[in-house]
Design goal:
Blueprint (H helix, E strand, L loop, with lengths): L1 H14 L12 H10 L3 H12 L1 H11 L2 E2 L2 E2 L3 H4 L2 H26 L4 E6 L22 H9 L2 E2 L2 E2 L1 E6 L11 E4 L4 E4 L6 H11 L3 E4 L7 E4 L4 E4 L4 E12 L2 E11 L6 H6 L16 E7 L9 E6 L10 E9 L3 E11 L2 E6 L6 H25 L1
Parallel strand pairs: 3-6, 3-7, 7-9, 8-10, 9-18
Antiparallel strand pairs: 1-2, 4-5, 10-11, 12-13, 14-15, 14-16, 16-17, 17-18
Helix pairs in contact: 1-3, 1-6, 6-10
Length: 381
Amino acid sequence: MQKITSIYIVMLHVMHGNYFEPKHEASQVDMTKISKEVLSNEERIRAYDIISKFPNIRRDLARYGYYQKETVTISPIDVFNRKDTESSMHEVNWLTNKLREIHYYQIFEPPIRIGVLSGYIFTRKEKPCSYYPHSKYRDAVQWMLDLNNTRQGESNLFQASLTPISNLSDGTFSVVINPFGEAYPELGNAEGTGFRTIMSYIQDGGIFINSGGQPFVYSWDVNTGNHKLLVNFIPAVGNIESNYVEGRPRLFIAENLVIPYEALLLKRYFDVETEWDNPETGMVGPTEMDIEFDELLGHNKQKTRAKVYRPVKVVSHNIQPIVYTYSDTLGSVYPVVAVKFGRGFLVHTGMNLDEEREYKILLDIIRRLSLVGYETLAKLV
């Protein structure tokens, strides 16, 4: 019930033109603009009706929930039945969704604060990540410069800066880009401070864009300056042949290395499966394919060519396709998707960004997401 109370209080702040928290830095002008451009007249009336009756509910809960002279007063269960609870939760869910739409509207107001991972976890005494598997066209500094040169009309669309992973928790960045492709900076070799901080950033409402290939396949140890593959392969029998050698029968066994999906961090934590190299489907390494933008990036649904690498196989309720492709062997797969996780998103880029074309495609996707696509994402959270 405390959660419900807090949400109602925050909505009252919005209705009266106040800010959420100091870190949002929303002025009276900001709130007036949000009220006019995000909430319709009907939505403002509905929010006010819901909020205005809540003080009485809270007062009744306090009255019925305390002991008086060693005897409990009327139980809240006698006052609030299941129907009342379901109705209240429905109203709270509606208010929560409106708050999220407002939050996304606010954080995507230009210039949008974007953090580009610098390769460090904490300090410059570390050995920063310099490994860019499937994302070699631009390094972290070049990413930052290109984003800061992206214009919207007469103004800069982005305000980008390099950041160590440790700074992701301070609420500065609406969007964070990992320029290192399938690698990420880490203390040690697996699921340490770096990975946990990234997960917390996404859960708390951040949008984490991975630049190329499959996220979290390699870690870069900032203590040693070495990268490590985070996948454990399982040997599997591929072919068995019998023959005679010097008159004696011998068996020749060929093994294949199988990757269990659960060994991949993307599957284990985000429940996302991708296409890996498979000669039977023709998906071996980066593959030239026709791709099409989803309408959330704009109604023109742009079509182009790209080197697809590690596309997502199947979408579910927590996966929003951003880019589609199709082949006779694979069927429909999804090179770029937004994966809902907590209150935020992981953007998986299943393309090879070793060359300019794919890099510019991703830059265009980021630009479109920032201008129009965030409205769709806000409704999915």
